Amino acid sequence: VDLDPHEASMIERRQRLLGPAYRLFYERPIEVVRGEGVWLYDRDGKAYLDAYNNVASLGHCHPRVVDAICRQVATLATNTRYLHESVLIYAEQLLATMPSELGHLMFTCTGSDANDLAVRIARSFTGGEGVIVTETAYHGITKIVAEFSPSLGPSVDLGPHVRTVPAPDSYRSPTGDLATEFTVAVEAAIRDLRRHGIKPALFICDSIFSSDGVFGEQPGFLKGAVDAIRAAGGLYIADEVQPGFGRTGDAMWGFQRHGVIPDIVTLGKPMGNGFPVAGIVVRPEVIDEFGRKARYFNTFGGNAVAAEAARAVLSAIQDEDLMRNARMSGAYLKDGIKALAQRHDAIGDVRGAGLFVGVEIVSDRSTRTPDARTCTRIVNGLREAGVLISACGPSANVLKIRPPLVFTTENADFLIERLDRVMMST
Ligand code: PMP
Q1: Any signal peptide, and if so, which residues (predicted)?
Q2: What is the domain partition of the chain in residue ranges?
């Protein structure tokens, strides 16, 4: 691609200043300078429909969150070792959205450190080490968590105590009975851990399987796997960093769609609509001993500004009925893309829940052969056409569409029209 001199210079400076570990989106990266609602704007004022950002879940720069952050940062920004009402009010508000078995909220700054803390608690409670995850899962970047985030690729070795199970792939399921297939896989992983003398500590999953390729359908399929890990003395950790805060449309939390109650829930990304705030919610009996032995303090986790941002987010989700919008707009978007599939053979499957939609791009529908090249061309073509999405899945051939929850049916029409146009020319 032809980059203009300004873009080329920014890329060169990034490489020089930030080093080699960072990756940019797109063949022609975008410099975004402003966001509002579902729109992002580049330096020239060109608008892009943001159909990817689940952090700005209420829309970019939501006035209520901006106000809450500004007010609090101008008043006091301090930590959880002082008494402060905000953190307590938020904890009451958040815990009220969870099953009553989950009694405590602890604050972190990122989803990775939420998962790190959850694993430490689970290991302390169970006395086990073993971790079961799906084959292309992502749970974060700390050493402990990267060891069970296979989507990081071969550069990070999975821990010897980690076992992977195939994602519940509704498109390629051999029997069509995902619940049984998934349970059998988790049971086999438990047996394999034991055979190697490793006691299972936990099964962790993101119930929308966002990096595995987006599998949200047939709600309920997780129950057997959760029963299996508990029967083996391990815990079930629900990573709600992706499906949480209303995204899947049917429920505030992804695990609720499966009729299961986790031992620990981990939270992040949309919790502060862009302000860094994350955390875990845990059953009191699970944290009891750990809490008495260990000391937990996280300098920025749960600071007054983070708590106010998170309060504003949760209130807005409820007051603006965003879960309902995720359900309605998500269904509309999915139907629209399914209709496109009649014209474009490359669309093998359209799936997801609420405003989390996966579109499988294949070279041959009868063999369901993944087509990553076409998928990449579509993602880059949409970027040129003013729509931002990405790709996921073990073969990187699934369009990942995950817009802010304020996404309207008009926004969906725009996306569908552009997708149609881009697919016609790829
Ligand atoms: N869990 C899941 C399911 C995620 O998608 C992510 C981030 N992509 C994380 C955990 C880690 O969150 P963070 O980047 O805030 O550390």
Answers
A1: none
A2: 31-58+321-424, 63-319
Q: Ligand 1 centre from 103 Cα, in Å? A: 23
Residue of minimum CA distance from atom 1 in ligand 1: 139
ipTM of the prediction: 0.99
Class of domain 63-319: alpha beta
What are the pLDDT digits (tens) for 142-155?
999 999 999 999 98
- CA distances, 238 to each of 91, 178, 241, 365, 396 (Å): 18, 19, 9, 33, 24
Q: In terms of DSSP bridges, do strands 39-42 and 47-50 run parallel, antiparallel, or are they unpaired?
A: antiparallel
Residue 140, ligand 1, Cβ within 6 A:
yes
- As a CATH number, domain 31-58+321-424 is 3.90.1150.10
CB 353 within 8 A of CB 216: yes
Buried b (16+ CB within 10 A) or exposed e, 82-110: eebebbeebbeebeebbbeebebbbbbbb
Atom 13 in ligand 1: which residue has the minimum CA distance?
111
pTM of the model: 0.97
Q: Is 240 in the pocket of ligand 1 (CB under 6 A)?
A: no
The CB of 279 under 6 Å from ligand 1? The reply is no
Atom from ligand 1 closest to the CA of residue 113: 16
Residues 265, 253: Cα–Cα separation, whole Å:
9
As a whole number of angstroms, the distance between CA 186 and CA 225 comes to 6
